[in-house]
Amino acid sequence: MKNLVSTLVLFVCFLSQGFGFDPAYEKAMLKQLDAMRQVESREKGIEVSNGFMRIAEANATEWLPLYYAALVEIESAFRFEGEKDATFDQAISKIKRAEKLSPGNSELTALHGYALMGKLSLDPASRGQQLSPQVMQLFGTAIAQDRGNPRAVILMAQMEQGMAQFFGNGPEKACGMARISLELFEKEKVKIDNNYILPTWGEVAAKELYSTCN
Fold it and tell me: Could you name the domain of life of the organism this protein comes from (predicted)?
């Protein structure tokens, strides 16, 4: 019996090390993700982003805290008044740090494109020629890195929609991509449980875009 207990303890330790299972890290991330859903001001966004950065400093090999810290900043820059350009730049800096921890990560590549799309949105007339190709390339790369990533697809669809409106073209391409993203979101749901800390956001935006197509 003693040997059996020792074997089970060793097996649990092996799983914890092999799969990066860290209850304290996951608990901190889940708490911060809940706070992220309740951001209703620029100041609260800064507070939540700083919370993710504290988790990042305590878990130097994890890319997700940096990812979410950047995402909060991007969303805050879109939603609230403030130093928008600087906030997008801060987000890009965090994304680049995360990319060193997880190279070729579709989620990070898509988020990088999202931040650049934010900078583009501040002055499309003067920034479009320079930034539009960069944004489209990042979204295209994110899709190539993981064709099952719905966020990469819906972000590309939003960019296509914006370009179509700017140039007076039809919405067909954007609508087609929005439909594909919704299918991918449905497939993604089967992987989600109450302790899921990987990115799952974007479905609301996909539904909103697709609703304009009918």
Answer: Bacteria
Q: Please state the pTM of the whole predicted model.
A: 0.89
Q: Closest by alpha carbon to 142, among 97, 109, 184, 103?
A: 109
Buried b / exposed e across 177-194, counting CB within 10 Å, b at 16+? Answer: bbbbbbebbeebeeeeee
pLDDT above 80: residue 194: no
Question: CB within 8 A of 106, min separation 6: which ones?
Answer: 142, 143, 145, 146, 149, 152
User: Cα–Cα–Cα angle for 172, 182, 206, nearest 5°?
Assistant: 70
Domains and CATH numbers, the chain: 22-103 (no CATH), 105-214 (1.25.40)
Report whether 72 contacts 49 (CB < 8 A).
yes
Average predicted confidence (pLDDT) for the chain: 90
In the numeric block, the tokens 């800096």 are attached to 93
Measure the CA–CA gap between 114 and 111, rounded to whole angstroms: 5
